[in-house]
Specification:
Number of helices: 2
Strand content: 35-45%
GO cellular component, one term: nucleus
Radius of gyration: 18 Å
Structural class: mainly beta
Organism: Petrolisthes cinctipes (Flat porcelain crab)
Order of helices and strands: EEEEHHEEEEEEE
Distance between the termini: 26 Å
Protein name: SHSP domain-containing protein
CATH architecture: Sandwich
CATH topology: Immunoglobulin-like
Family: Belongs to the small heat shock protein (HSP20) family.
Helix content: 10-25%
CATH class: Mainly Beta
Number of strands: 11
Number of domains: 1
Shape: globular
GO molecular function: unfolded protein binding
Amino acid sequence: MSGTTERGAASILEDDCLSTTATVGSRRPHSWNLDSFLPVDQRGLFFQDSFFQDAQQNFQAAVKDVLTKFGTSDETSVDDLTLYRTLRRRDLGDESQAVKITENHHSHQVVMDVRDYIKGDIKVKVVGDDEVQVEGEVLEEEEEGGNGAKSRRRRRRFHRRFHLPGVKVEEVEGGMVTAGLSSDGVLTLTVPKKLVTTASL
């Protein structure tokens, strides 16, 4: 059993802010700096872009876990992803967000659904030696009446924390971490581990 843990919190707030700026962009992998935000590379569709090949099965498992938790996995006439998206339209809490954390001898991987936030800010931050935080924020406008009516702005946020035991600065392969965001809203974070060779023992 993995010692990797995860904590999170989501909130919906009414707000008068005028705009929000996305922080995702096409950049190179970032060094593993303490208490620093990592660039998030924009990619293609999750199930078509080869960048996500190693994460696809984990994401499907995460979706299945959410459907099982909410008792909707028995509706066999509809595919799992469609059922999941329908569920998320009703409930945007942490419990209904598809998240999977895995690790092997080479790396830790976090794959999570952030589709409801891709029109706003999505940030990935390394905190200390062994924690990664993912946060998202989006501003939504809703009209309160007919023509010329005032718009109501609502800010939606989430914040998740992932503890990756055993990952220290000196143990990360080349000091590199990659974060990729698919165009349909699946975030994949890979934290390589340093391989221990016989020569280094």
